[in-house]
Specification:
The protein is α+β, with helices and mostly antiparallel strands and 361 residues long. The chain has one domain (23-190, 241-268, 300-356). 28% of the residues lie in helices and 21% in strands. The strands form 4 sheets. Strands 7, 10, 11, 12, 13 and 14 form a 6-stranded antiparallel β-sheet that branches. A 4-stranded antiparallel β-sheet has the order 2-5-1-6. Strand 8 (234-235) and strand 9 (241-242) form a beta hairpin. Bound molecules: protoporphyrin IX containing FE (HEM). Residues 148, 150, 152-157, 187, 189, 208, 210, 228-229, 232-233, 244, 246, 261, 263, 265, 273, 276-277, 292, 296 line the site of protoporphyrin IX containing FE. Residues 148, 150, 152-157, 187, 189, 208, 210, 228-229, 232-233, 244, 246, 261, 263, 265, 273, 276-277, 292, 296 line the site of protoporphyrin IX containing FE (HEM). One of its GO terms (molecular function) is peroxidase activity.
Length: 361
């Protein structure tokens, strides 16, 4: 079957599918009352700051993904809003709770070196000085062969290439104004290492649903229904597995006895990640919660929309100034329709034949 050629401009994507890195900074801030103008001033400059810091060490792959929370969106931008953007709901299961905590902006900064991440974060915060309050700051590190602090390889079943594209990015069909965006949910987990380490390895493997050393998934017969992998495997109504792109990182602070996993999951729709959270915390069937949660406490939780890079580079005006900005935006978009370079995701290693094109057929 051939697809009709698309006249729609294809958005440039944020670096969601950039390769795994050795370091990351996760920065969650809220915008202080009156700080909106300063945030709006920064937004189109973020990609320039990434270039300025990253160009000094191009081989170390500095990237920054910017996410915007539901309340902040309405304070910052006029015009349409992403169809599925909403605050993360708290989940209270019989045994464990996933809190919803404040967050207006998320900066997910990654590189092979922490100094690059830190330098970029410093520049971002200098531009936001007096306009935002930092709610959470986590410096994540790669731990041996991409293991979490529980000792298991984390990220194995992540989709790659075109399936990763399809999993992570919104399509023009789903949301015409926000194609090429992504919904991201973050949660900071703290592990009870003493209790976890007291478990025999076989019991740890049953909690995860994979072997520890060799990272092989258990068969469906072996895998307990309360294992992490069983509860995070979700399907749509047709039985097709729904995927998200996870870029979790370990972190820790010895003096405070903190050993953690920073969970970060990108998806074309927040509903897939939310279903996984429901399964983990409320249980599936209800009451059968994720065994990992008996050793891992979620202390933060928030949801953001990650718009396309085009949106960030040329954001709409503030609320109330929408009509003129929208007309100008449409005219500009029409002018770009034939530009082959307008399909740009240098990070996924695929051949540019992913879901965005198909969805416009
Ligand atoms: C798989 C760790 C939280 C979604 C895994 C695996 C590990 C792991 C070790 C198996 C290897 C892999 O495929 O990556 C953790 C830890 C967490 C955490 C330590 C926090 C304490 C979450 C949350 C979600 C999630 C909050 C979603 C809301 C998934 C998914 C898979 C997975 C979708 C792959 C399942 C499959 O298709 O096999 N996780 N995870 N994880 N996790 Fe998590």
């Amino acid at each position: 079957m051939t697809s009709a050629p698309s006249a729609e401009p294809q958005p440039v994507l944020q670096a969601v599918l950039a390769p795994l890195t050795k370091a990351a900074v996760f920065l969650v801030v809220t915008v202080d009352p009156g700080g909106e103008e300063q945030v709006r001033d920064l937004v189109p400059d973020i990609s320039g700051l990434v270039r300025s810091v990253g160009f000094r060490a191009p081989e170390d792959g500095l990237t920054c993904i910017t996410g915007i929370g539901s309340d902040a969106w309405d304070r910052l931008f006029g015009g349409p809003r992403p169809a599925e953007l909403h605050p993360l709901a708290e989940r209270t299961g019989a045994a464990h709770r996933a809190p919803s905590t404040p967050g207006d902006l998320l900066f997910h900064i990654r590189a092979q070196r922490m100094d690059l991440c830190f330098e970029l974060a410093t520049h971002l915060m200098a531009r936001l000085k007096g306009a935002v309050t930092v709610r959470d700051e986590v410096h994540g590190f790669k731990y041996f062969d991409d293991r979490d602090l529980l000792g298991f390889v984390d990220g194995t079943e992540n989709p790659v290439g075109s399936p990763a594209h399809r999993a992570a990015f919104t399509t023009a069909q789903a949301d015409p104004d926000f194609a090429g965006g992504s919904y991201v949910i973050v949660q900071k987990y703290l592990h009870d290492m003493e209790a976890w380490n007291a478990l025999p390895v076989e019991a740890q493997e049953r909690a995860v649903g994979r072997t520890k050393l060799s990272d092989i998934e258990m068969s469906d017969e072996e895998k307990p229904p309360n294992s992490h992998v069983a509860l995070t495997t979700v399907e749509d109504a047709d039985g097709v597995q729904q995927q998200i792109v996870r870029l979790n990182m370990p972190f820790g602070t010895l003096g405070r006895g903190e050993f953690g996993t920073y969970f970060i999951g990108y998806c074309a729709t927040p509903s897939v990640t939310e279903e996984m959270l429901d399964n983990m915390f409320l249980g599936s069937p209800p009451g059968v919660h994720d065994r990992l949660l008996d050793f891992s406490t979620a202390v933060t939780g928030s949801l953001y929309f990650v718009p396309s890079q085009d949106f960030l580079d040329d954001p709409p005006g503030p609320p109330g100034e929408t009509a003129a900005a929208e007309t100008a935006g449409e005219a500009e978009a029409d002018g770009e329709a034939d530009d082959p370079d307008s399909v740009t995701d240098p990070f996924d290693g695929s051949l540019r034949i992913g879901s965005l094109k198909r969805s416009n057929a």
